[in-house]
Design a protein that fits this description.
16 strands; Arc Repressor Mutant, subunit A; binds magnesium ion; alpha+beta; about 20% strand; about 475 residues; three-stranded antiparallel beta sheet; about 40% helix; binds adenosine-5'-diphosphate; elongated; single chain
């Protein structure tokens, strides 16, 4: 039987404010437990929450970037439930009147097609605290530092049709909030996590199937894996004549399975009501226009522009725009190199630079090589001063000196100039032919692939300095004539 998969995501994005949503406590990650919880966060009687203005700006920014309607009047509500890490006994959230609603976002699917995903709403709320079960024997600790941290919960329409689409949508939202500068998107620190609602129905059915909700998925990979196993479970269950129970489930990554957590609560279990301690949020045209003026170029627009202005491929543009800082770096590097195809610069960033950054756990802001040096290095490859493999050595040497040396002096000092002199290359090719008789026979017997090995040997002998095209050409002509 053919099943259709239906998914809607609720993404919790921590907003990058200095202080909490309703108090002046700092939001810094990793502080000593309970050192960042004020009386407001603790819910002491008699204290009053005061709304942090910057969360309103951030929510509007998100709303404008996703073509949402911005509510002129939105209301904070109390969502009542008991949990040890929620001392007030309620979470302040928005319910009937969210700050923004009815928008959409275009995502680029793996096959290059574009799909528009509806955004039902995005509302402001405070985070709860954290229970620590591992540090104490027979006891649980409560850390209330996270209490009152501002969140924007972004709720999608049930428009996603596969685990991969859900992953792509989540990545696109992640990219967007970082472009907007409203969240650091740090997933290890829990600044970006999602609940996935999953159901299946027979192809062609209009009515949605019963859904389950997979809670607190904090990596793109886990979202996709969790959805895949949950879909399998639902299909097996229905095909065996069973029924799906609407419930909240947990994904266990070690066992790669989902398990029931609790039966699905209904909205009325929470007894939502408008918070009497907070005024409605009123937004006027002037504020909206001020925020609009601050909007940066958005990721989709930037990707399209990089393809158009720099003639690079879709996939390279997609990667180079993965963060605004990387795209800035790339564009800066292309500035004074009119005769170098931007693709060369992109390649150096994607290969050499990202490898070096990964190795040292740095983000691009920590790069020890300036964009203009990358541009210069690409120029040297383009005009055949160095081969691509020698360029890699130049890169590493500059990196080692913390960026203080320059491209020309490194090439000079390490003798990395490309050898284009045909006689010199010919002599090296001859050596390699003499020293590898077995491979030569294989090649003559039609094993075309051996040529790669032989070129490699010559490159090795030249310490990466021979021009590989020349080597290839000379090798082939010698082998076909001998
Ligand atoms: P709740 O607040 O109880 O979690 P909502 O109605 O607000 O429920 O829906 C939450 C999310 O679940 C939304 O992203 C929505 O698109 C998605 N969703 C709703 N119904 C289904 C369904 N049958 N299958 C998959 N996703 C669904
Ligand atoms: Mg929900």
């Amino acid at each position: 039987m053919a099943w259709e998969i239906v998914i809607g995501l609720e993404i919790h994005t921590q907003l990058a404010t200095k202080s909490k949503i309703f108090s002046g406590s700092p939001t810094q990650y990793g502080a000593t437990p309970n050192s960042q919880a004020s009386l407001v966060d603790l819910g002491y009687p008699g204290v009053l929450p005061v709304l942090n203005q910057s969360v309103v700006h951030m929510a509007i920014k998100f709303g404008l970037a996703t073509d949402c309607e911005i509510s002129r009047r939105s209301v904070f509500a109390r969502k009542n439930y008991f949990y040890p890490d929620l001392p007030k006994g309620y979470q302040i959230s928005q319910y009937e009147l969210p700050i923004v609603h009815s928008g959409h976002l275009d995502i680029v699917l793996d096959d290059g097609n574009i799909k528009t995903i509806g955004i039902t709403r995005a509302h402001l709320e405070e985070d709860a605290g954290k229970s620590l079960h591992e540090d104490f024997q027979g006891l649980s600790g409560i850390d209330l530092n996270r209490t009152g941290t501002p969140l924007l919960e972004i709720v999608s329409e049930p428009d996603l049709r596969s685990a991969e689409e859900a992953g792509t949508y989540m990545r696109s939202i992640h990219k967007l909030v970082r472009y907007l500068g409203i969240s650091d998107g740090n997933m290890q620190e829990g600044s970006f996590r999602c609940d996935a609602n999953v159901s299946i129905r027979k192809k062609g059915d209009k009515k949605l199937g019963t859904r389950t909700e997979l809670k607190n998925l904090n990596s793109f990979r886990f979202v996709e894996k969790a959805i895949r196993v949950e879909v399998e479970r639902q299909i097996d269950l229905l095909e065996d004549g069973g029924k799906i129970t609407q419930e909240t489930r947990l994904y266990d990554a070690d066992k790669n399975e989902t398990r029931p957590m609790r039966s699905k609560e209904e909205a009325n279990d929470y007894r939502y009501f408008p918070d009497p301690d907070l005024l409605p949020v009123i937004i006027n045209d002037e504020l909206i226009e001020n925020v609009r003026a601050e909007l940066p170029e958005l990721p989709n627009a930037r990707t399209k522009r990089l393809i158009r202005d720099h003639g690079i491929s879709d996939s390279m543009a997609e990667e180079l725009t993965s963060s605004p800082a990387i795209a800035d770096y790339f564009e800066e590097a292309t500035k004074n190199t009119p005769h170098v195809p931007a693709k060369r610069i992109g390649n150096l960033i994607q290969r050499e630079l990202s490898a070096a950054l990964n190795r040292e756990g740095l983000s691009i802001e920590g790069s020890k090589i300036s964009p203009s040096m990358i541009g210069k290095l690409a120029q040297k490859i383009e005009d055949n001063t160095v081969s691509a493999s020698a360029a890699s050595t130049v890169f590493d040497e500059i990196w080692k000196t913390g960026g203080s040396s320059n491209v020309d002096s490194i090439i000079e000092k390490h003798g990395l100039k490309q050898i284009t002199d045909m006689h010199t290359i010919e002599a090296m090719v001859d050596d390699v032919i003499i020293n590898n008789p077995e491979q030569i026979i294989q090649f003559k017997n039609g094993k075309e692939k051996v040529i790669g090995f032989l070129v490699g040997q010559v490159m090795k002998e030249s310490k990466g300095k021979a021009n590989p095209q020349n080597v290839n050409q000379i090798l082939r002509s010698k082998l076909s004539s001998s």
